[in-house]
């Protein structure tokens, strides 16, 4: 009997370890989603005031050049004031922050969320992902270590990352891909799925919360590709590689731009100047180049054939420049959502120049290449590109297109700096 008990104990042990993780994972997942949805809702309300209510009251065009410049400059002033005066200065320099990382001080969370909300509402070309993930990590670690002091901090970090990714994309798949990539080579007990169990619960809870309270969708309404051929594969390989090269232009320019803004030293100089530059870029590029870019990407894709290749190229270049300026001067926000717009515009340039390329191939392949260069997250880039394509037949093409694009970006400068201001590789 003792032999049978010893033989079955190892199989039972993981269950006894994993089951108690379900409740905290559910709590963190739902909390992360509510945090994301709350910030997004407040930003949308303020955006409506800034870009609809006020222009109507003043009887001016909401996207006239002067209003765009004025609002973005004012946003720079407001965010600069928050970063200057808020406890914790709204977190660390976003230029050196990726998607995740060690918990920051909880006192910095309110300032970070306010700065992010103001940037989202004011038309800054950054998304909500990085501030929301950083805030969720800080709160989950702070509360979790007080509720269960014996649980490692890394456990709460993984739950917060997974819950927020689930909320952002409305599915736990993205979180599973991110964490699988992060866990490769890291020591830890149990199988990969044992280690993913609690984060996937958190991601599922975050995704379901978003699905119940909102309507998240990366689907762009592209015409589906039903019967891919060799010409589609060739187009995907070429467009993804060119998109990666275009994204790398930003990575190479980013450290220089960051140093240039760094010479201004004070946030009440850096952010207003950055806001002014963003306003000028917005006036040049128009309404589509403002904000985080997801809604604008849908508008752009819905108007296939209405823009010339030159106009589309201008949109891609202006949006890339706006992303670089916003991240370099200190605005708080992420890079994934603007990179999706940049990739979509770049892909439509290719489709305008070579009309034989299927729109789903052009857009999703370019988004894949730009995201690989911007985030260096292979699985997330592939996932977003596949969701945008909304075509199962595209998945095999995108998997293959990832390979030449990855050869282009691997070992090259990233759109992220170390704490000395040097580009990571």
Tell me what the structure shows.
The protein has about 425 residues and is mostly helical. The protein has 16 helices and no strands. The protein has helices at about 1-20, 20-60, 65-85, 110-120, 130-145, 155-170, 175-185, 190-215, 230-260, 265-285, 295-300, 310-330, 335-355, 360-375, 380-390, 390-410. Helix 3 (about 65-85) runs antiparallel to helix 10.
Largest sheet: none
H/E element sequence: HHHHHHHHHHHHHHHH
Rg over CA atoms: 22 Å
Instruction: Report the β-strand fraction as a percent range.
Output: under 5%
Please provide the count of β strands: 0
Low-confidence stretches: 1-11
Q: Describe the oligomeric state of these chains in a short phrase.
A: single chain
How far apart lie the N and C ends? Answer: 56 Å
Mean pLDDT: 85
- Strand pairing plus helix content: what structural class? mainly alpha
Question: Tally the helices: what do you get?
Answer: 16
Helix content: over 70%
- What is the molecular shape? globular
List strands and helices in order, with pairings.
Elements: H1 2-18, H2 22-58, H3 65-85, H4 109-122, H5 129-147, H6 153-169, H7 173-183, H8 192-213, H9 230-262, H10 267-285, H11 294-302, H12 309-329, H13 336-353, H14 359-375, H15 378-389, H16 392-409
Would you kindly provide a brief summary of this structure?
The protein has 425 residues and is mainly α.
Please name the defining characteristics of this protein.
425 residues; mainly alpha; 72% helix
